[in-house]
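All the exercises in this workshop are built on plain-text protein records. There is nothing in a record beyond a sequence line and a structure line. A learned vocabulary of local backbone shapes supplies the integers on the structure line. The question running through the whole workshop is how a given chain folds. Here is such a record, shown just as it appears in the course material:

***
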Amino acid sequence: MSLEARADRFIRHLATERGLSGAYQLSVRQTLDALAAWAGRKSLPLRDIGTEELAGFLKDRRTDGISPASLRIATVHLKIFFRWLAAKEDLPCDPAEPLLAPRPDQILPETLPSAEVARLLESIDPADPLGMRDLAILELFYSSGLRLSELTGLKLEEIDFEEGFLRVTGKGGKTRVVRIGAKALDAVSTYLTKSRPALVTKRTGSHLFLSIRGGGLSPDRVRQIVKERAKAAGIGINMYPHLLRHSFATHLLEGGADLRVIQELLGHSDISTTQIYTHVDAKRLKSAHKRFHPRG
């Protein structure tokens, strides 16, 4: 029986016995069709397709421009297909079992150089009431590495001015305590004293940051504020709140902070999530070495 015929039987197995969705069946079909076409071009019958041949097929798919994420999915498809064939005794062994899925591309977070952060913050008029609010927002993002949802959810009672800490609720409803830098603390204090009272209405609750209508700021409005302030400061990149969180972590690491400390400040449950910033720092070091070392 040909590879194509066995692929047809396998797809029927996925539909009738496994009850998998049509979309999943189509995805598997595309992988097996690509394998059959590849094997046909090389005049390879099914019995001659071993681990090396499957690795070669995946390598050629990568050369054709398939992303690592798609290759990982294709590898899973090959594994379940050939495991099924081996179980049906159509093959003496499973050639896909030793295959290792390719690692996904490491997507490094964008960061803003510290000089650009300073330019952004210094561009805001601290005498303007809404400027006071927006400066406090940006200072908090950069000083404490807050997520957007954490900042918009902040309440007045969650700030400890005496100790310089915030109590925030992060992902999964987990609460953590984060440090507020001196400049951010001053900005928030100024906003609370001179700006927030003018925004309060009868319906105002305890949200720290208020809109001009007296309600808590929405995430969309905060995104808009960040973009508007960046544009006014002449910062040409796509600016968004999480970029300041990334910059917070990267600048801490560059300054010598321990990765475990950064993990705690960011509220990451797994250190592997925080380790992405070591790649950012390594990239910066490599660039500096190449630029400044005589044999770089």
User: Anything to note?
Assistant: The chain has 13 helices and three strands. The first strand starts at residue 159 and ends at 160. The radius of gyration is 27 Å.
